[in-house]
Amino acid sequence: MHGAVGAASPFAAKPSQIPVTILTGFLGAGKTTLLNHILTARHGMRIAVIENEFGEVDVDSDLVETSSEEIFQMTNGCICCVVDVRTDLVRILQTLLARPEKFDAILVETSGLADPMPVAATFFMDNDVARQVRLDGVVTLVDALHVESHLDDPQLKGMDNQAVDQIIAADRIVINKTDLVDMADIRRLQQRMRDINQGAQILVSCHAQVDLGQILGIGGFESGVALADDPLFFGSHDHGHELEHEHDHACDEHCAHDHEHGRGAPASVCEQTAAPGHQHDPSVSSVSLTFAAPFDRWHFDIWLKQLLDAQGDDLFRLKGIVAFAGESRRHVLQAVHRIVDLRPADDWRADEARIGKLVFIGRNLDADTLKAGLDWCLAAPVHAAHEHRLLEAAT
Ligand SMILES: Nc1nc2c(ncn2[C@@H]2O[C@H](COP(=O)(O)OP(=O)(O)OP(=O)(O)O)[C@@H](O)[C@H]2O)c(=O)[nH]1
């Protein structure tokens, strides 16, 4: 059942403090899909959305199905480990809270590589903000097809593993993309999630269609102000002194996160005190490219297939808004490893520059090679005609 958040829900009912939900999960797990499910449900609430992307070019705001909600984008770095981004988050919250028309709820979508705990801690950095908001819960999306390759990523042995951190931090774990795996996989994943996080409720979904009553208004954190006063939330690196949160994490041989860096030790603290611990996988990078001219669809399809064939393992995420020659609609491109989706969306506006933008996130990405490949796809009429002639000559 797809439950809307009704008037009886505690999510809607808190009079004084605005509930904040953090949506997290590894790259491509389905966070934006869940966000759209929440925003398009009939709950009658005003929801402010704060998004943080890993790439420099903002694609996510094009993918969010906006209605009356307001979307704030933060693309200047990862929210969990760049101090400026967390300061930005506080500034956005201050602006939101100063408005005469209040929001009923705030959703924060973290980047797919973020550790949600420092993000949660940010809500208590500023006393005024901490008094006015209530951290309702951390909802972690899990990609049923790909999560295990990230949990067991051999390159992260002995390092912080964000896929693990995100599951540890969850109040709710949503095992998504169940259409791509079979029942035995789902059961194995449920057990694996339970081994990592014994307190979180585990849900399963296809296209993030979860009962919203299960993920919003859950009261995962007791009191924001109390947490803000709790030195463990901001400061301790002792493993075992964890944030006062409802669940436990059983560390085992599958747990690749840095055991010096417990869940109660946000990256903010690591940075501010220069303590060791939290570090993103340094082998993962992003490449953001924009194109002021449309692509030729024939070339683009060939380029995309070759890219995914050759680099699908390393390509954690690809998303883009693409313009094709002779096509009035923008196209949305999404790929998670080799699972790709390219589909038309709404029309380009008449007064709008048809700027294509693509963000690649993964390992061994070479910006020049990617750009050269996409330049080859550009629909310069002479170029395209020449190539087609070549193809005809060859057949
Ligand atoms: N097959 C299948 N695809 C899904 C499902 N849920 C989401 N997707 C697709 O997976 C891709 C990634 O989904 P998003 O919601 O953008 O994932 P995300 O976590 O927001 O991605 P990032 O913000 O880049 O980390 C999109 O193409 C979605 O349409 C699902 O249950 N099954």
UniProtKB/TrEMBL annotation:
Region of interest: Disordered: 257-283
Keyword Amino-acid biosynthesis attached: no
InterPro entries in the cross-refs: CobW-likC_sf, CobW-like_C, CobW/HypB/UreG_nucleotide-bd, P-loop_NTPase, Zinc-reg_GTPase_activator
Substrates-to-products reaction catalysed: GTP + H2O = GDP + phosphate + H(+)
A GO MF label: nucleotide binding
Pfam families in the record: cobW (PF02492), CobW_C (PF07683)
Coiled coil: none
Domain CobW C-terminal: start-end pairs: 284-378
Keyword vocabulary terms for this entry: Chaperone, Hydrolase, Nucleotide-binding
A single GO cellular-component term on record: cytoplasm
SMART domains: CobW_C
PANTHER family (alphabetical): COBW DOMAIN-CONTAINING PROTEIN (PTHR13748:SF62), COBW-RELATED (PTHR13748)
Family: Belongs to the SIMIBI class G3E GTPase family. ZNG1 subfamily.
Described function: Zinc chaperone that directly transfers zinc cofactor to target proteins, thereby activating them. Zinc is transferred from the CXCC motif in the GTPase domain to the zinc binding site in target proteins in a process requiring GTP hydrolysis.
Name this protein carries in UniProt: GTP-binding protein
